[in-house]
Structure prediction request, 275 residues.
Amino acid sequence: MAHQTEITVNDGNPYVFYSTGVTSEGQNFILSVATVTQPTTYTCCYQFVAGSCIETNAQVDIMTLTASNYLVKVGSNSDISCVVTNAPNQPSTITWKTTAGTINSGFTHTNYADNSQTTTLSITSIAADTVYTCDFVIPTSNSFATVSKTITVDTVTLTPTSGTALSGGSVTVSCQIVGAALQPTVTWKDGVSTVNSGFSNDPWALQTGTFLSKLTVSGLTSTKSYTCEFTVNGKVITETAVANILSIAPIGATTDTGSAATVTCIITNSPRCTN
Prediction:
């Protein structure tokens, strides 16, 4: 086993220095850096006698690979992306994969520019939670570096429930998400305007990923649609719940005492009923 020596220098970083030993191909000396936060050049000096040093430089480049998790409705389509920045060279290979293996189609890459490149995978008819991995293989001065990022696609169902009330009355609509890995935040919209009152949320059910949000409005004189927005980690899914407003107009009748009479009530704007 190679002997390791830990040293700390002026930057406060702990370094581990060791040799792999002498082989027929020579001797390797390795400097292990605990944390690198910026591009750094390290100089290796092979000193055989006092005052004599053969130097060579080793460059450490800092790349950043950015991706985020996604919240999607079961059966929908989605595009997921990974972005590499500060890459010293254009990636030689970009690969998408899941636990089932490498994905061979459905992705596109932007042109490499300003030390950055983006890869996007288009997924259709998403049926279940899936973890995707993007791998970037990037040439360095004398080798290749591989950087990877995982993306979790969380599939959920989002079900709206409409409500019905008479004109001027109070009506409640709701939306319920099931299967969410994290508790979402909920926003209700009236068109493009945010609804700031009248809503309430049931407790978050972690085991089933269920979250129910209800909106109650009063004084409506016509049917109106409201949008519920469920957000997790900046990813938003939406549905529309309808507040159906009914009107009832009675039509009376006049007749002689003891004679038959028919009175009628006409309801308008009624949603279709199923018996």
Summary: The two ends are 80 Å apart (CA to CA). The chain is about 0% helix and 60% strand.
